[in-house]
Amino acid sequence: MRLDLYQAETARVAAEQSALLGQAKDILKQGRTLTPLEQAGVLHALQVLVENAIGKAKQLLKASEQPVPVSGYDAFKALANRNQIAQADLPAWNAIVGLRNRIVHDYMNIDMDQVIALLSADKDQFVVDFLLKKF
Known about the structure:
mainly alpha
């Protein structure tokens, strides 16, 4: 797939998932706790956003004729080494990729209070910003 088409699709998915997370944030701002169904929706939206970002990172490397790592961690490290993302942002990328891995593989040990805190502090926004940015 052409990079421009890929980036357009990642932006579309980012907008959808960001809107869902926005609804959850609005609920939290009203002082209401999320229902179990809403919590599951938040986790799914975060998972999709991060997987989308990992895919975009790998596509950017591929388009630059760089080796494409298997690991999401390594993909963002490679982008940082190429100055396509800031080195200072690498810890946040590692943390969000780790959250995605926990959602997928260690779902019985997710601390929803930490996820809600992340969401309430808009610490997911950098992922959306990356997905909306054209490289």
